[in-house]
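Quarterly update from the structural biology core.
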Amino acid sequence: MAAVPVAGSERFAQGGHPLPPGDMFGDVTLHRVPEGTDVDPLTYEVVRHRLVAITEDMGDAVKRMSGSVVVTDCNDFGTGIMDEAGETVQVGLYNTQLGSALDMAVRWTLQHRATNPGIRPGDQFLLNDPWVGGGLHQNDVTVLAPLFCDGELFCWTSVVAHQVDLGGVSPGSWSVEGRDVFWESLPIPPVTIVEGDRLRSDVEDMYLRRSRVPKLVGLDLRAKIGANNVAHERLRALIATYGPATVKAVMKKMTADTETRLRDRLRTLPDGTWSAVAHQDGARAGDRDIHKIVVAMTKRDDRLTFDFTGTDPQVEGIINCTYAGLRGGLLPILLTMLCPDISWSPGGVFRCVDIISEPGTLNNCTFPAGIGKASVNSAWATQNAVSETVAAMLGTHPELSRSAMSVCQGSFDLALLAGVDQRGNGFATMLCDSMAGGMGAKVDGDGVDTGGQNCIPMGRIADVEINEFSFPMLYLWRREEADSGGAGRWRGGVGASSCFVPHDSPAGQVHLVVSANGKAVPQSPGLSGGYPAATQWDVLVRDSSARAQLAAGRIPQTLDELGGTAQTVPPHLETDLGAGDVYFTHWQGGGGLGDPLHREPERVAADVANRKVSVVAARDVYGVALAGDGSADPAGTAALRGRLRHRRAGLTSSDETGEGA
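Predicted structure, tokenized:
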């Protein structure tokens, strides 16, 4: 059954509309920079760096107060400072996807909350509605906090973090059989969670009642409120030292400088249009279709236009994303590739960008489309396609090409565990091991092996011991996997795998939710003849011999040693893991760059020795013959590469001369 439009949902579409001119919204007066305010260069740099540091202080505060491994050990959250009208001045080095729609959330709040219930000093607003902004799916819960100075709304701060469960059909709110948003955690538009510096217990109860782990989600709520309080304390001290006019002038200049420097950079690049297509396999459990996102990026003078015409319509399932998710697919690439040495002011970046997108499509869906996995599906696929186009454009410049990369870890391998933990308490957690994805190859070097994700510069994975301490699981291994990175003149960074068993749960089993695309279609394409990274691969082994081997003092090292019955897991699955079952998850690396037959044989031999590339791939993909001691055989390699080139040309075996390198 197709999703039926809901009357009145247009109120929440695309985060409202641009703010009308004026300094008043309801009873709220916006603080503006007085005309003639000038800031000397030294003061500008001091205040600018202090504002950047405040976003880092916010991150430290969240991590110290949160109890969720997703936040404390994996950094899946975001912080930001916005000006009085919501334009984002600075984001932290955490999940930059989450910095893409803070402006949308503030604008919507100003338009729809300034009069009723009002926006006052000491208030904070909670939301998780991706049609409004803030986060990319319902698990991304935002707390916005307006800061007033002399009775005027001076700026906003915000913290967004992934919450491990907010209700819905399935644990973790990843309802893999879902058709629309009503299978999932229902979105909350901005509501006053803190009023006059006092937490509203009625709103908190309403929010926490939906969660399977309310105490943990409640602790994260306080962490976000506390982080905003830390930011306001720091901002008030800054204002007291330099004055509100100077601090606000610095905020405006930060955004303007980012815009100016990005425009200058774009002018050094040739005009043109670059296109890419990103595919996703399976919108929900049982769906075997391939769904595509299409983008044509046009650069003219000092502007970029991203045209998503041709993208598939929104589907029944959980992979759609709203306009906030589309922007979330743009921002990380623009920041990391185009602005590595420019202040990360999303407001300035988006001034240089036009977006063409049809509502009702995969990455600009309308209510009530399913969006439970938006962040790591259609937003992620948008990021992949945008990465290809921006990298291709940068490849035309002798210096800026060094910032380009092939696509990094084309999909997120989600495994969610839930049930009763070793202490007898209910738990639910997203296993973040796959955040150690392989980075894409560069024009002058290999991608970083298990280097993380380019959308979360400070992303990391929890130690094995932390996961085993926190949850009823026992690892058999967690290791890098050979051949998971794309082959090329420069190799894509390899991904890795985890293999674990349920352990020490009083229930004797744990619940498993899998949602991991990229199994039918490679999603980390290469550049300039580079190969894509390997597809994702997950295996569920029923009735294994793992426990018997552990009891005998032996740790299994491969899937073949586990015995039992192995089942290749489809993109979406919900099931239980019994005491004798084993789950193996193998996530993607980064795409390669350049023809793998141009890679120096010595590098390939070193890759084989370091278990980054298998002997088979060295021979069949890179065309490198290895001697008995593992070193490259020059003569054998020249002959092998000659034969491979002949086969590429479609010549028969009788035509193969075996000559030439």
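The chain is about 30% helix and 20% strand.
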